[in-house]
Amino acid sequence: MSNNNGFKFADNFLWGGATAANQFEGGWNKDGKGASTSDMMTGGTHTTPRRITPVLEEETYYPSREAIDFYGHYKEDIKLFGEMGFKTFRMSINWTRIFPNGDELEPNEEGLKFYDDVFDELIKNNIEPLVTISHYEAPFGLTEKYNGWCSRKVIDFYVTYCEAIFKRYKDKVKYWLTFNEINCLTVPFGAFMAGGILVNENENSDQKRFQALHHQFIASAKAVKLGHEINPDFKIGCMIAYMTTYPNSCNPDDILLAQQKDQISNMLCGDVQVRGYYPRFANRYFEEKGIEIQMQAGDNEILKEGCVDFYSFSYYMSSVVSADTNLEEVEGNILGGIKNPHLKASDWGWQIDPKGLRWTLNNIYDRYQIPLIVVENGLGAVDVVEADGSINDDYRIDYVRDHIIQMEEAVKDGVELMGYTMWGCIDLVSASTGEMKKRYGFIYVDKDNNGNGNMERSKKKSFYWYKNVIKSNGKEL
Q: Which GO terms describe its cellular component (predicted)?
């Protein structure tokens, strides 16, 4: 389909795909790598949650440990990304590949060498690396010693890690993200995944999570300042899981509830990382929740000095909220909500809302006026391999096409959009469920929920479609 209005994205628009080390890299105990928080999470399903096991259990499947073994297939995979024409590839570095326990004084050379090889391969294929420094894989050693980001000491360990990779890759990587979906710490779900925090089963984790979030804010700001000192050409961004929220009705109670969700879920983290200070609406929220953020002298100055250069975010769906607690609820990314009768849903119940991406882009840009990039957007679905080996994922093509169209509309609205990296460009382990069955990729990987399969890569119909999208710079959809 050609977009008939002659629209085209900027010539330097960063088309690409996105992954996370903990979901696709594997090689969890190779060449000196230590155990990360994700390595301690079991498999799960749509109906059975993943478990956190502080001690390894024999005969238990941990999907992140092997994942799809990018560690052993990186040349093959990057060649496929190059064939699609990627301008950029969003990936993350496994912190424990560089500092196995998180608190070592010297980095692991074998781990550093692996990412040298990956970046060299990307550069050889004319692909710009976009690197997330911490993406749901904090060292489990820091959880054991300090209960993760609850401790302020972890800030220094993170900055040491940043210094090691900034100096090592200063001539290979330009674009960095400090934390993946940092705002996940605003919800109980994110305590372990985003903060490496173990909480008691019946514990209210609000105080621990928001204190940990403050520590990550300080760590991010210090990393931004350090990165710019090491290489002034670095562009360092934040990454927010944008939870687009609509009121269910024009009832003022619904309107206020939607506004409050947007403030705490999205704007709190965006304001601190982009503007360099806590928004005033946070004061009331903290007071009502009994949260007391422990700050040290100089923290406010650190936040001011470490504002990000650009704003990146994930967008999969929108949700609906209502003051009426009797309405039907549906699944969602991090947070669910009320069923929206105007939208279709994915196989996992996530409501599909392309126009919500246009609204979101405008909402973010109106507030911050800095460059934006959509670094996660995609459709988790059950793919069928036909007898001839083909995978006809037209539903994925439709999903991505409809969202790109709304990105075009947002750019015409005046939004400064840097790029788009479709999530899970190659099939990988689902973060929320630990499944392989929930597939996102343009590239199919032969592996199932139980770890069975030969890891063979094959191209889906969407592979060829996205290749043409990039080649035409969004003209041919």
A: cytosol
Residues near 61 by Cβ (< 8 Å), separated by ≥ 6?
A: 42, 43, 450, 451
Q: What is the DSSP letter of 154?
A: H
Q: Long-range contacts made by residues 105-114, C-beta under 8 angstroms, separation at least 24?
A: 105/160, 107/161, 107/164, 107/168, 108/31, 108/32, 108/33, 110/31, 110/32, 111/31, 111/32, 111/33, 112/164, 112/165, 112/168, 114/31, 114/71
Least confident of 238-242, 287-291, 348-352, 389-393: 348-352
DSSP 104-130: -SS--HHHHHHHHHHHHHHHHTT-EEE
Has residue 427 been placed in a domain?
A: yes
For residue 332, pLDDT beyond 80: no
Complete DSSP assignment for 253-267:
HHHHHHHHHHIIIII
Choose the weakest-confidence range: 69-73, 200-204, 275-279, 447-451: 200-204
- Give me the number of domains the chain comprises: 1
By CB atoms closer than 10 A (0-12, 13-18, 19+), residue 126 is exposed
Query: 116 vs 75, 90, 99, 100, CA distance in Å?
Result: 13, 15, 16, 18
58 is catalytic: no
**Within a domain: 2:** no
Residue 8 lies in a domain: no
User: φ and ψ at 126, to 5 degrees?
Assistant: 60, 40
How many C-beta neighbours within 10 Å does residue 326 have? Answer: 5
Which one, of 150, 82, 87, lies nearest residue 121 by Cα? 82
Interatomic CA distance for residues 401 and 417, integer angstroms? 17
> Is 430 within 8 Å of 374 (Cβ atoms)?
no
Candidates 121, 137, 376, 435; catalytic one: 376
What CATH number does the domain containing 312 carry? 3.20.20.80
Which string of DSSP letters, residue by residue, matches 334-354? SS-EE--TT-EE-TTSPEE-H
Calculate mean pLDDT across residues 153-171.
98
Give pTM, 2 decimals: 0.97
CA distances from 187 to 120, 210, 261, 285, 473 (A): 38, 9, 11, 13, 37
Number of helices and strands (H, E) in the chain? 16, 16
Q: Which residues constitute the domain of residue 312?
A: 14-471
Give the SS3 label for residue 327. Answer: coil
Q: How far is CA 310 from CA 84, 133, 418, in A?
A: 26, 15, 9
Q: Which of 88-92, 328-332, 422-426, 460-464 has the lowest mean pLDDT?
A: 328-332
**Residue 282: other Cβ atoms inside 10 A:** 19
Q: Is 403 exposed, middle or buried (0-12, 13-18, 19+ CB in 10 A)?
A: buried
- pLDDT recorded at residue 334: 57
